Amino acid sequence: MNARNGALLCRVLAALTLSAAIASGEDPGQLPGRQVRVAAIPIGCGGEHDAKLKLALDHLETAGGQGVDIACLPEEFAGFTAEPIPGPTTLAVAEMAKKHKMYVICPIREQADEKQYNTAVLIDRQGKIIGRYRKVFVYWGEGLHVSNEGVRVFETDFGRISILTCFDLNFAELWHEADLLDAEIVFWPSAYGGGCPLNAYATAYNYYVVPVGEGNIIDSTGKTLETVEKPREHQVIATLDLDRTFIHTNFSTEKVKKLLEDHAGEVEQEQFYPMESWYLLRAVKPGVRVREICREYRIETLREYRHRSRREINQAREEGKRI
Asked: Which label site among 78, 93, 212, 286 has the fewest CB atoms less than 10 Å from its CB?
């Protein structure tokens, strides 16, 4: 078996293990790493409000029954009539979020006083609205106001997420900002599929991307996930491990070697990227977290290394010092 097939088999087994754990009532926190189940529900943008809302609620019922932690609906999925927050759409979706104790991203056309925005509303497991993202780069002809709030990151009980919307795909600075904010998953509700730029952003920044145009969920390695569940048409569910950790070889080779020796049977090297000089580590024993062990060994993640390097090199530039 080659390395690629071996990695794929491990992901399949991990997904099956998590599904079995949920079915048996086992706490997912006792599984290796930091597992989260996400659902993309690409039922299309626009349409007649009541019919689309009914369809969305039916899909959320399905996702909730599959033990999903967070589900995302498409951009303006219930039509183009603006409403306040909270309003009819967010209130109905919030009831479903509360029923199934899952987060839901509910994109609507928002009426905010005299302005209208393309807004994705984040609802928590208790059915409370805990955040919103207003589209920064509104598409030509939408007839909406553009946001001045920029990119946001939202703290959930499973990790840090950002939301970008449709035409935002074309503006790399937004995706870079999501990285600077330490987003672990970027959700992308959209009216179209998006394609390869999404894979490129996931590759460059090593976060997961969950597109909700076609439902092609993208791994933090930049690859479109092959191991997904499709409980019904226009719904894709994936199990993501937010604890999988990229580490640069710079200043860390010996420390990584010792970590793997000391924690054999608990942590393994999932893959090595020779051209990029990256390790990818993951936990294989229930309850083990790679990120926690890395801190014990004073090993920076790839993202931490990049962010620190940016700060310190820029400081040297300002001070006119040599590196």
From this structure: 286
Say what the pTM is: 0.91
Q: What is the DSSP string of 266-304?
A: TEEEEEEETTTTEEEEEE-STT--HHHHHHHTT---HHH
Angstrom distance (rounded) from CA 190 to CA 233? 18
Catalytic-labelled residue, pool 52, 75, 266, 294: 75
Q: Using CA atoms, how far apart are residues 166 and 79, in angstroms rounded to an integer?
A: 15
Q: How far is it, in rounded angstroms, from Cα 257 to Cα 252?
A: 9
Q: Kindly state the tokens that stand for 314.
A: 């820029």
261 a catalytic residue = no
Known catalytic residue at 294:
no
Active site residue 72: no
Q: Considering 135, 177, 184, 266, which one is annotated as catalytic?
A: 135
**Mean per-residue pLDDT over the chain, rounded:** 93
Q: What is the distance of C-alpha 319 from the center of its chain?
A: 37
**Other CB atoms within 10 Å distance of the CB of residue 264:** 10
At 47-68, the pLDDT tens digits run 999 999 999 999 999 999 999 9
